[in-house]
Amino acid sequence: MPVPTPDTPKQCPASFTCPENDGCSYTDGSRTLTLTCGVDFYGGDFTNQYAASLEGCTQACAGDAQCVAASFVGGKGDGRCYLKNTKNGGSVNDGVDGESLI
């Protein structure tokens, strides 16, 4: 009997938004994050910053070695990006989109 293989996340397009691209993966160098629309990873913040988009928040996390997860509050526009050095359990929150290292 073959061993099941985990689903490989689809690569995020050059421009991505929620909920259209939920579950896609974003890779920057050796770091890959998975987009989780409508999920907030509470706590663990080490900084927060303005981000022009969900993509900008994802890029900020991917580019910071301390970042293991991030929460973006801004929908399809600009907003706050909360970079986290601890990935706590995710909570459903329609106003927040998360990403985390895989």
End-to-end C-alpha gap: 27 Å
In the CATH scheme, the class of the domain at 25-86 and 95-99 would be: Alpha Beta
CATH fold annotation of the domain at 25-86 and 95-99:
Hepatocyte Growth Factor
Provide the β-strand percentage band: 35-45%
Question: Helical region count?
Answer: 1
Strands of the widest sheet, in order across it, are 1-2-6-4-5-3
**Helix/strand structural class:** mainly beta
Indicate the percent of residues in helices: under 10%
SSE string, helix = H, strand = E?
EEEHEEE
State the total count of DSSP E strands.
Answer: 6
The radius of gyration computed from the alpha-carbon positions, rounded to a whole number of angstroms, is 13 Å
Low-pLDDT runs: none
Give the rounded overall mean pLDDT: 92
Shape: globular
Write the layout of secondary structure elements.
Blueprint: E1 25-28, E2 31-41, E3 45-51, H1 54-62, E4 69-73, E5 79-84, E6 90-101
Antiparallel strand pairs: 1-2, 2-6, 3-5, 4-5, 4-6
